[in-house]
Amino acid sequence: MSEAAVNNDDMLLEVNGLTKHFMLKADVYSKLAGEKAQTLKAVDGIDFHIHKGEVLGLVGESGCGKSTTARLITRLIEPTSGEVSLKGEDLLAFNRDKMQDVRKEIQLVFQDPYSSLNPRKTIMQMLSRPLEIHGLADNWKEKRERVLELLGYVGLGIEHIDRYPHEFSGGQRQRIAIARALSVNPELVIGDEPVSALDVSIQAQILNLFRDLQEQFDLTYLFIAHDLSVIRHISDRVAVMYVGKIVETGTAAELFSEPIHPYTKALLAAVPEADPTKAPPKLTLKGEVSTPIDPPPGCRLCSRCPIETPICSQETPVLQDKGAGRFVACHNV
After folding, report:
1. Beta-carbon neighbour count of residue 244 at 10 Å?
2. Which of 34, 79, 92, 106 is the most buried (most CB within 10 A)?
């Protein structure tokens, strides 16, 4: 039974076997040496689901495929294979026009507020553009009223409406990006590390804003981060990703208190401890992060894992149902 196969009437998003492989062309010297093109398996057959109104945190090290997953769901890039269903409809079967309509339901807040906003456009121009594209305002007066309403939701006001992005701080820019995502009344908002570029004090403000907006508009979030404290603060459930694979999912409370997969345990053990009298972490991984370029068969973690057995290097583990909403991909747990 795959994690995405869970059946429920309030299911909003289901992802099953989602895969994205990039072909890496060999350079001239590699070709002369007889080397073949390589395949980078950025996302390699992942399963997860999100219920309406919940927050799923997707956590993992940089380069594990989290941001690629966000872009695959929104079809900013096309998957190699797999299924993405929104309220039971297959998003990958939609043509360009139909997908544009669906994007009203799914919005993406990018990581860097300095590059995600057009420096040549005022806030009024940026926030009114989605309204024009989707026909949500008939005239300039309606657009301006709606933009002011959106700014109010994120703690900004009329004095900001005609300014340009360079006139705002990083936290204010991210508030504007969130307002832009809300402009089309989405059901699912994907936050692609939306607080990682901000100061710690500002991170807390933006996280609280996400929570307040979720309650106000009954939003559903896929929240991507590599900071475990951020994921713990905002998530109802958590999916842990390693080198293109999801290795464990479960409720935030269970996963942080009783992790099962050795990679999840190592992630939690690596969190800095404020108390110097506490013993060092009992579980650490050896070696370097595995490469997603032409990975060998078997578990991606096996060369680093403290509980590795011969089967680990031969067969790829799949997510197994451990009961009570826990799914783990490991041969030895």
Report:
1. 25
2. 106
The first and second tokens of residue 226, run together, are: 């590599």
> Residue 171 — φ and ψ, nearest 5°?
-65, -40
Helix (H, G, I), strand (E, B) or coil at 239: strand
Residues in CB range of 47: below 8 A, 6 or more apart: 2, 3, 4, 5, 15, 16, 17, 18, 246, 319
Query: Cβ(299)–Cβ(331) under 8 Å?
Result: yes
Report pLDDT digits (tens) over 296-319: 889 999 988 989 999 999 999 999
Contacts of 256 (CB under 8 A, 6+ apart): 228, 232, 238, 268
Rounded Cα distance between 30 and 43, Å, is: 25
State pTM to two decimals. 0.91
Beta partners for residue 81, in sequence order: 19
- How high is the pLDDT of residue 34? 66
* Whether the Cβ atoms of residue 294 and residue 213 lie closer than 8 Å to each other: no
Do the bridges between strand 89-90 and strand 106-109 make them parallel or antiparallel, or are there none, so unpaired?
A: unpaired
Q: Distances in Å between the alpha carbon of 76 and those of 45, 67, 72, 87, 282?
A: 18, 11, 6, 20, 41
Q: Quick one: pLDDT at residue 4?
A: 46
Is pLDDT above 60 for 7? no
Specify burial of residue 128 (Cβ count, 10 A radius: 0-12, 13-18, 19+). buried
Give the residues across from 323 on adjacent strands.
326
Distance of CA 210 to the CA centre of its chain: 15
